[in-house]
Amino acid sequence: MTTPSVAELAAHPLLASLGEARLAALASRFTVVEHPRDAVVAAEGDRLAQFHLVLAGRVQFFWRDDDDRQVKLGIDGPGSHFADATLFGEPILMSVVALEDLRVAAIPMPDLHALLLEHPQVGVALLHDVVARLRRLVVRTKAFTMNDVYGRVRELLLTAAEDCDGRRVAMLSHAEIGHRVGATREMVGRVLRDLARGGYIEAGRGRITLLRALPARW
Description:
This protein is α+β, with helices and mostly antiparallel strands.
């Protein structure tokens, strides 16, 4: 087992306020853990003995029902962490899968508690991040419960789109959109075809380009 470098720890937002000397002293509390792509690194209901800082790679949070259907909840990358909802031994509420080869710095929960008491600024940074996550979850839940399928697809496209060569592009497949908005691929395909016919989007294989402002309702 190896420990993370001081540079890796310093690059993580939760620890950015600590100086190199202090991080060097803290590094031994962390262990680097690597997971291959597609590995389920935590399953809903698990009681995690360690808190994980993501150093490299991306993770997907999801729920899975008894019929093995998934609802995808969000994606985090370097600078994120899991699982803040199980800091005191509670079962984790979401499963976590590695979307890419994943490198994390893991710290036992008792050591994390001690670190937060020794360095309150780390606790404040964690609190800010947890509140931001909660707000994102509430926004997504509101959209899911109060919007129709079109409204949920529209919201996902707008939030997932990134600038690419002067255009806004969302790298999403029909299946992934369906998972994330709670709709069938057929329903998603119908919405996207209608938007394409209206000149609002250009849809390719796993790539949706927004051509003009999407209408609020359809």
